[in-house]
Amino acid sequence: MTSRVAVLVDGDNVSADHGNRILEISERYGRIDTARIYFDAQKGNGWHKVVGYRTVHAGTGKNAADLLLAIDAMEIAFTRAFDVFVVASSDGDFSHLVQRLRELGRMTIGIGEAKAPHSIRANCAEFVELGENEPVKPKAVPRPNCSKLDRQIRSVIAIHSKNGAGMKIASLAPKMHQQFGIRISTLPEGTWRAYLLARPALFDLDPKGPEAMVRFKPEGFACSDLLDVS
Length: 230
Known about the structure:
It contains seven helices and nine strands, in the order βαββαβαβαβαβααββ. By secondary structure, it is of the alpha/beta class. The strands form two sheets. A six-stranded parallel β-sheet has the order 3-2-1-4-5-6, sandwiched between helices. It has a three-stranded antiparallel β-sheet with strand order 7-9-8.
């Protein structure tokens, strides 16, 4: 199932000249189901002319756009089934937001200009730097790096999948512990959803929910079919 993407843009920080490119980059990660631009709508900064966004008037207060964007991001994360959050801003203050979204198991993509500090770059799963007049390049698809753990996950999914439908993500934890003695709490990702989302070349997930399923992508494991998973 295609990942659902939420695009949230700090219009007081990023130039409207990058509006179309931000959407093009975001489409690499799935289907854009919401795209919002936060700024003081009374200012003529060019964002009014960019098609594809819902304009959110943040008012004139200090950091008003930042605060409203962060509030909406958390509301969406807790109430709607979005897998990927794209935060377009060069403001390092958003490092706290993307870090929290990652803890919730969402894939976080940062988009910003060269001035973006290391704090925001380091806390995003990926960060794309905008360049002046730079054309959008297709996302490179690296050869999947299949670890022993990835192959173990594949074997469990294969055993419990029927007709290619996959298995419930909620069932993965007990099965992995029962068969291999592995607890996801001991790994940096902390949750199985976060671990699987970080490996889109290997696994395909349903939107978050109690019945959400996970499937492995056979082409992603082509390099490891003969390797042992014990």
